[in-house]
Write a structure and sequence with these properties.
The complex is a heterodimer of chains A (415) and B (462). Chain A has ten helices and 21 strands. Chain A is globular. With 415 residues, chain A is an alpha+beta fold. Chain B is α/β, with parallel strands linked by helices and 462 residues long. In chain B, the strands form four sheets. Chain B has a six-stranded mixed β-sheet with strand order 3-2-1-4-9-10, with helices on both faces. The chains are: A alpha+beta (415), B alpha/beta (462).
Chain lengths: 415, 462
C-alpha cells in the first residue's frame, strides 16, 4: 500500500463522522476531521487519554462521555471512544439535543453489545428514549461498518505503516511551512474593560528546526467567560492547519511543531460546568489568530490591518422539545428546519422575504406549548433588529420563552 | 398498448454525457444476455444476424462530440423506410442543470412580503428564479397594475414566458387569483401553480418544474423534429414508462430505473453502479425530501449516493506538487483525454489500459485505440509524474489507478453488510479487477439497451 492508499483510507474512516480522530495505541494522532460548529481536535485527544487510562477499552467497546470540565465541550456533544484494533482507536463526536446532563466516561457498549445496566439507567428513563436509542445504535452501526474493513484496519494499525505516514506528513508539512511567512506578531483583545486575552505568535526556522509558538502570557484570570485549554487549543490547531493548507492533514507530526503556553486558570484555560461559552471563545480566539496571520504576512509598506470580527449570529430555537438552529453570517442565512415548522403550522409566516440581499422573516407562533429562544453567538456589529419580539429588540443572550400567538421577526443583510 | 409488426421502437438512454440507443422491431425483442460477459470478449452481432433478430440499430455516443440531433438522425437513417413512432427514454440528462441557477425567464407572482420566500431561510442554495422577476400583489391589485408590472419585467428580460403562482388562499382572495391567472393566460405565459403555496418545499418543486421546462422542451422537440409531432415519447417515471409527468420526475428517471431494475430483475435491494459518468450506491431505500442544489424539495426518491471521486474529475497538481483529484466540477466537456479533444487528464483516463479493451468505451470514444491518442495520453501523464515534487507521494498512472480502486473498494465495503456486495454497469469490471478475499463482489449483468427493452416488454408496451 502506498501513502495515498493509507492516507485516503484513514480519511474515509474519520469522515464517516462530522468530527473524529484516528489515534494510535500510544496516543499519536493519525488522522483527524472537524466539520461541526465546535472544533474538538485536542478535546478528542484529551478524552482518549482519560478513557484509556481509567477504562482500558477492549476492541468493540464504545465508551461515551460529555463532561465539559473533563475534556468535553457541553452536554449535547457526546464523545465516543472505541477501540478498532489492538493498536488503533477512534474518537468521534456526535451531537444530540436529548441529553442535558453530565456523563462521565461510561461503557455503553461492550464488545459490540449493549451494557444493559448502563442502558437501563441512561437511555430507558429518557423521555426521548426512541431517539436516543436510534442515536446510539447508529453510532454502533457506524463503528461496526468500519470494523468490517479488516484489511485496511490491519494496514493502518501496523507500526511501520504509521511511522511511514508520519514521515510523509512531516515532509509535506515542511514544504507547506516554507510557503508561508516567518516572524513574530502579538495582539491584545479586550474581553471587558478589565479582562484581556494577549496572544503572541512566533514562527521561526533555525538549522532546519521549525517552531510555531503561541503564548498567552499576561492573559487575564478567568471571569464570567472562559474556556478549557483543550477548547482553545483545538481552534488554534485548526486555524494553524488552515493557514498552512493542511486541514485534512492534521496529525501528530503537525501537532509536534506547535508549542502553546496557556496560563492556568486564565480566560483561555478554565473550563466551565456547562461549556456554554465554548463556541464564543473559539470564535474570538480563531479571529484573533487570523488577525495575527494577516499581520505576519504583511509587507512593510502596506497599511496595518485592524482586527474586525466578521458579522455572525446564531440562535437555537426550541419548539416544544424539538431544537432548531438559525445561522447567519455575511454570506448566508440558514434557518434549519424552517420548512417543517411552517408545514406543521408551529410557525405561521407573516412575512418571508429575501430581496436585494435583505432577509425579513416574521412569524406568529402557532399551536405549541412553548418556544424557547437563545442567542448562542453574536460577533461583530449584529444589528438590533436581528431578533425582535413583539417588534422590540431582544438584546439578552439568555434563553427567553414565548407562547402561542406571540409574534417575532428576524432581519439580516448579506454582503 | 401493442404495436403492429415491423414498426420499430426506440429505447434511448440519455445520460449527462453519453447516450445509448437501440432500435428494434416491436414483435422480435432481441435476446438479452444472461451471463456476465468479460470486457474483452463481448462482440456485436453481424448486421445480418442483428436484422434477423429484429435489431435495426444499436449504438452509444459521447454527447459533447455527437449532438443529440445528429444521433437521432443516425437512428432515423438506420430505420430506413420504417417510421419510428414509439420512443422510450430513460434519462439523467437533467443532471447538467445541477451546478446552475435556474429560472432566468420565470416570473414569480407572490403576496406582498413573500418575495423569494422559498429561499429566505436557505440563502446558501442556488436560486430557482431570477430574484428581480417578481410581481408582489395585494388586494388592491388590478389589471392596470399587472400590465405595468409586465412592462417592467419585460425590460429586465424580454424573453420571459413562464410564470409561477404562489398564491395561498388565506392571503389572496379568489377574485384576485382569477384576475391574475386570466391575465397571464391571455399573455401566453406557461403557467405553473404551486399545489400548496404555503409549503416552501412545494413552492421549490413548482419553481424547479418551471425552471427545467426549457431543457425538457429541448429534448422533446429534438425527438419530435426527427420523428414527427405525432411520435409517442414516454419517459421512465418512478416505476414505468409514461407520457404524463412533472419536470422534476426527469431528474430521477435513471435512478428510479436502476432501483426498479435491481428489485424486479435481480431481486436485490442495493448494489453499486458504475458507468462512464457515475459511480454510486443504489439502494431500495427512499427519502421523502430531496436535498437538491436549490434547497429541500418534497419528492420521494431513491437514495443514490455518489462516490466522492467522479470519473470526469480532473487530475491535477496542487500547490506543493502533489497529484490530486480536483474538487472542481466534473469536466464533461470536452471530456477525458480518451475522447480525443481534451487537454486535461481526467480520472477516467487513468483507467486507459482497461477501457481500450472494453467495447462500450471503444464505441463511445472512437479514437481510444489510435497510436496518436495513446502518445498524447502518455505524454500528459509523464508531465504529471514529473511535475510531482514530493518523492514520498509520487504517483504513476498505475499507482493512481490502484489508490482510486482501493479507495472505492473501502467506500463500498463501509456500506455493505456481510462483507459482500453486488456491482453492475458498463464499467463495473474496473472495480472487480483485483478481487479481495475480505470483500466479495457479485457482478450483475446490465446493459442499458437490454434493460430498457426488457422493461418495455414487461410493461406490455409491445
Amino acid at each position: 500500500m502506498n501513502f495515498h492508499s493509507l492516507y485516503h483510507t484513514s480519511q474515509l474512516l474519520v469522515k464517516t463522522f462530522e468530527s473524529a480522530s484516528l489515534i494510535t495505541a500510544d496516543g499519536k494522532l493519525l488522522a483527524s476531521t472537524d466539520q461541526g460548529q465546535l472544533v474538538s481536535t485536542t478535546s478528542r485527544l484529551v478524552i482518549f487519554q482519560i478513557v484509556k487510562k481509567y477504562l482500558q477499552p477492549n476492541v468493540g467497546d464504545l465508551i461515551i462521555v460529555n463532561d465539559p470540565e473533563n475534556g468535553g465541550l457541553d452536554f449535547r456533544h457526546i464523545f465516543i471512544v472505541t477501540r478498532l484494533t489492538n493498536h488503533l482507536y477512534m474518537v468521534f463526536v456526535k451531537v444530540t439535543p436529548f441529553i442535558d446532563f453530565k456523563i462521565p466516561p461510561t461503557p455503553l457498549f461492550e464488545k459490540g453489545v449493549r451494557n444493559k445496566l448502563i442502558w437501563s439507567l441512561l437511555v430507558e428513563p429518557n423521555p426521548h428514549r426512541d431517539q436516543l436509542t436510534e442515536f446510539f445504535e447508529r453510532a454502533l452501526h457506524q463503528v461496526k461498518s468500519i470494523q468490517n474493513l479488516k484489511k485496511e484496519l490491519s494496514l493502518l494499525s501496523d507500526a511501520k505503516n504509521q511511522a511511514f505516514l508520519f514521515k510523509v506528513f512531516q515532509q509535506i508539512f515542511e514544504v507547506k511551512f516554507n510557503n508561508q511567512a516567518l516572524g513574530f506578531v502579538e495582539t491584545i483583545y479586550k474581553m471587558t474593560a478589565s479582562a484581556q486575552i494577549k496572544m503572541k505568535l512566533s514562527i521561526d526556522e533555525k538549522q532546519n528546526q521549525r517552531s510555531i509558538i503561541l503564548d498567552f502570557s499576561q492573559t487575564s484570570p478567568a471571569g464570567e467567560i472562559s474556556a478549557a485549554s483543550h477548547v482553545v487549543e483545538s481552534v488554534l490547531i485548526y486555524k494553524l492547519a488552515a493557514y498552512y493548507k493542511m486541514t485534512s492533514l492534521i496529525c501528530q507530526p503537525f501537532l509536534d511543531q506547535i508549542r502553546m503556553s496557556l496560563p492556568p486558570k486564565s480566560i483561555v484555560s478554565k473550563a466551565t460546568p456547562k461549556g456554554t461559552k465554548n463556541l464564543y471563545m473559539q470564535k474570538i480566539i480563531g479571529e484573533n489568530l487570523n488577525f495575527l496571520f494577516e499581520n505576519l504576512s504583511l509587507k512593510s509598506n502596506k497599511k496595518k490591518p485592524v482586527l474586525e470580527f466578521p458579522l455572525e449570529a446564531k440562535l437555537t430555537i426550541t419548539v416544544d422539545s424539538d431544537l432548531y438552529h438559525v445561522e447567519a453570517d455575511s454570506k448566508k442565512f440558514h434557518f434549519h428546519g424552517l420548512d417543517r415548522l411552517i408545514q406543521s403550522k408551529k410557525l405561521i409566516p407573516l412575512k418571508l422575504s429575501y430581496l436585494d440581499n435583505k432577509i425579513h422573516l416574521k412569524f406568529k407562533i402557532g399551536n405549541v406549548q412553548k418556544v424557547v429562544v437563545e442567542t448562542t453567538l453574536k460577533m461583530g456589529d449584529v444589528p438590533d433588529n436581528f431578533l425582535l419580539y413583539k417588534t422590540q429588540p431582544v438584546r439578552k443572550t439568555e434563553p427567553v420563552t414565548w407562547q402561542e400567538g406571540d409574534e417575532f421577526d428576524l432581519h439580516w443583510k448579506l454582503k | 398498448m401493442t404495436q403492429p409488426a415491423n414498426v420499430p421502437s426506440l429505447a434511448l438512454y440519455l445520460g449527462e454525457s453519453y447516450a445509448t440507443a437501440r432500435l428494434f422491431d416491436a414483435n422480435a425483442t432481441p435476446e438479452t444476455k444472461t451471463k456476465t460477459t468479460p470486457a474483452k470478449t463481448t462482440k456485436k452481432p453481424t448486421a445480418k444476424k442483428a436484422a434477423a433478430k429484429g435489431l435495426h440499430f444499436e449504438k452509444s455516443v459521447f454527447l459533447p462530440q455527437v449532438s443529440l440531433k445528429t444521433f437521432l438522425n443516425q437512428i432515423k437513417t438506420a430505420a430506413g423506410e420504417n417510421e419510428i413512432k414509439n420512443i422510450y427514454v430513460v434519462t439523467s440528462y437533467m443532471d447538467r442543470l445541477k451546478p446552475f441557477r435556474l429560472g432566468g425567464s420565470v416570473v414569480q407572482v407572490v403576496p406582498d412580503g413573500f418575495e423569494n420566500s422559498y429561499s429566505a431561510g436557505h440563502t446558501q442554495y442556488l436560486s430557482l428564479a431570477a430574484p428581480s422577476l417578481i410581481v408582489s400583489i395585494d388586494e388592491k391589485t388590478d389589471e392596470e397594475f399587472l400590465k405595468k408590472e409586465l412592462l417592467r419585467l419585460k425590460k429586465i428580460n424580454s424573453e420571459i414566458n413562464k410564470v409561477v403562482f404562489q398564491l395561498p388562499e388565506h392571503l389572496v382572495s379568489a377574485e384576485i387569483r382569477t384576475l391574475i391567472k386570466t391575465f397571464f393566460t391571455n399573455e401566453n405565459f406557461k403557467i405553473f401553480e404551486s399545489s400548496n403555496p404555503s409549503d416552501l418545499e412545494q413552492i421549490r418543486l413548482t419553481l424547479l418544474n418551471a425552471g427545467s421546462e426549457g431543457t425538457k422542451e429541448e429534448i422533446v422537440s429534438e425527438i419530435q423534429e426527427m420523428f414527427g409531432e405525432d411520435a409517442s415519447i414516454q419517459f421512465w417515471i418512478k416505476d414505468r414508462f409514461q407520457k404524463d409527468f412533472e419536470n422534476v420526475d426527469l431528474y430521477w428517471s435513471s435512478s428510479f430505473f436502476l432501483k426498479n431494475y435491481l428489485l424486479k430483475n435481480k431481486k436485490t435491494d442495493e448494489a453499486f453502479y458504475f458507468d462512464l459518468e457515475k459511480w454510486a450506491h443504489v439502494s431500495e431505500k427512499t427519502s421523502p425530501v430531496w436535498i437538491s442544489p436549490w434547497g429541500p424539495i418534497r419528492y420521494e426518491h431513491p437514495i443514490f449516493e455518489k462516490f466522492e471521486v467522479d470519473p470526469f474529475s480532473e487530475l491535477t497538481l496542487n500547490s506543493v506538487g502533489q497529484l490530486i483529484v480536483s474538487e472542481n466540477n466534473p469536466q464533461h466537456e470536452p471530456g477525458p483525454f480518451i475522447a480525443g479533444r481534451s487537454m486535461k487528464a481526467l480520472v477516467l483516463d487513468s483507467f486507459y489500459d482497461e477501457l481500450k479493451e472494453n467495447p462500450v468505451a471503444c464505441e463511445i470514444f472512437g479514437q481510444i485505440n489510435t497510436p496518436t491518442l495513446l502518445q498524447k495520453l502518455e505524454n500528459h501523464f509523464s508531465i504529471l509524474e514529473k511535475g510531482q515534487t514530493l518523492e514520498a507521494t509520487l504517483l504513476s498512472r498505475e499507482e493512481l489507478k490502484q489508490w482510486i480502486r482501493a479507495k472505492l473498494l473501502a467506500w463500498m465495503h463501509l456500506r455493505s453488510v456481510d462483507n459482500a456486495c453486488s456491482i453492475f454497469g458498463d464499467l463495473s469490471f474496473l472495480v472487480s479487477a483485483n478481487p479481495s478475499p475480505f470483500f466479495r463482489l457479485n457482478t450483475l449483468d446490465f446493459k442499458w439497451a437490454d434493460a430498457m427493452t426488457d422493461a418495455i416488454k414487461q410493461q406490455g408496451a409491445l
